[in-house]
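Model it.
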Amino acid sequence: MIAARQWECRAQAIKLRLLGRLSRLRNRSRSVADELAPELRISRQAAQVEVAVAEALPRPPNLLKAMDAGELDVGKLRRASEATALLSDDRARKVDEIAAKRIGDKNPGAWRKALARVVRQVDPKGVQDRTEARRKDRKVELIHEPDSMASLWLYLPAEVASTESPRRCSSTCPLTPPSRSTTKDAN
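Modeled.
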């Protein structure tokens, strides 16, 4: 299985290079994703994401080498691309250098957290500025639903959501175990 995974990572690297080259040949036209979606048997949005990752390939050369070596899959490369999208090329290269040394056997959640730590290390001021800008977008929405129900949607800073949500939910939504149906067969 390990060998199959490594070959899959290598094949994904080849595919991304081809997608990037095709996009550059077509002057990064939006029609590239439209053309690729039926060929790859994926949605237009999925094709757009793949093309965007392929177009960003010059930024993470060390991570691309890790794909060539079979150590990194396209999902983790996409997360790295998303994590560095707002960084300058110099800072993105620095994140690439550090992250390539930390790949290991991380699952997607651990990889995302590792990338966030590296970005904070490389660009602490930028992280702080983006955090402050996002805090201005915080909001609470009440959405009326059928049958006298409503959904409550919160967009809050993580530290507020992690302390407030459980407290609010426990006061309004007491946890009750699901009712168990018993039959004669169960006895």
